[in-house]
Amino acid sequence: MKRILLLVFGLLAGLTVSAQYYQDAVNKDMLHIRQPRTVQRTEIKLPVIDGYTPYKADLHTHTIFSDGHLSMEARVRELWVDGLDVMAVTEHLEYRPHEKTLVKYLKDYTKDGPKVENTNFVSSGRPASAEGIHVDLNYPVEVARKSAEAYGVTIIPGIEITRKEEDWYSHFNALFTTDNNAVYAPETIESIRNAKKQGALVMHNHPGWRHVDMNITSFEKKVYDAGLLDGIEIMNGTEFYPRAIERAQKYNLFVSSNTDAHYPSAERYERYGALRNMTIIYAKDQSLQSLREAIEARRTLAYSFGTLAGDEELLRKFFEASISVRKTVVNSKGVASIVLTNNSSVDWLLCCEGQKMFELKGNTSVALSWDLSKPVIYTVFNTWHGENEHLVYEFKVK
Fold first, then answer.
1. Rounded to whole angstroms, what are the CA distances from 371 to 88, 270, 330, 395?
2. Domain 53-93+137-310 fold
3. What is the pLDDT of residues 229-252, one digit of tens each?
4. Which of 22, 173, 250, 251 has the fewest beta carbons closer than 10 A?
């Protein structure tokens, strides 16, 4: 009996090793840990609305081509792994601190040696012509496009106009640019106009960042009143600006939520079990033309850390398309047993008047009891279509 037990334990030990490792095809003395040999993408399930497909986009990113800490190749790969489909290349127009490091690294390849200064126009206020280095601001887009081919990611060319006006930071992303090298002008508003001349769509970035409130500054008012803006970030990284939703409605702007990623996205999102920020674009297809049409038509929603915000009607359609209701049985008092299913990856925070709030996680179901003699109305508290406005939805049960 003892021998049998020893044999069983030996077999189990062997199975444990083989379950953890596999032998290298060439070197028989080397084992490999059993794990996926290829990167696995997070698949984010979102509903189709009115025949339009949801494309998950990040319209505000940075790499070593400005002040980010990832290469462009890594940034594109990371975006795909995180489950997104579209990335805008939006390096800073006036702020590229890595240039000094790169020039020093390439000192033997430069004519006069590493004599360049840090090109930080935000603090220095110096014009581009005074700088000791000139770069091709279209090159990051080329690198991104080449990297994106392997993943089927669509790249939107762009640039971030990064200025400080009247002691307040005012940053704007120009999207769908055709020549980033032709955007710069000493005056901020002229840079925006240069982008618009190319047919770019301009988005007001993080409107509450480093501001004491959400009031529009006198400079920003000039930009708004001149009709130079097409969109606004209502979410940026961990920041959320509810008042910006109503500003988007007032000025007919598309809403957006982006990472503004400088460091690896896993540090802010995956580590905490969160999906990364995304602008959900409802478009006919993934082409630049269709994406632009959808953005101009304001078929966008903003998602960040479980919160979904934007136009009330689009939010309603999104929620309605995500939820299915199945009635199992109705008792003699007219109380129905209901199975409520969330068919999307977005969690919902639901509350019916007089009841406790509960969370319906993505791709899960809950069993509820509904009195069908009364309207079944829920407030979806993690949706926002105004500064203090949440979606109110009435379920129709047949």
1. 48, 40, 9, 12
2. TIM Barrel (3.20.20)
3. 999 999 999 999 999 999 999 999
4. 250
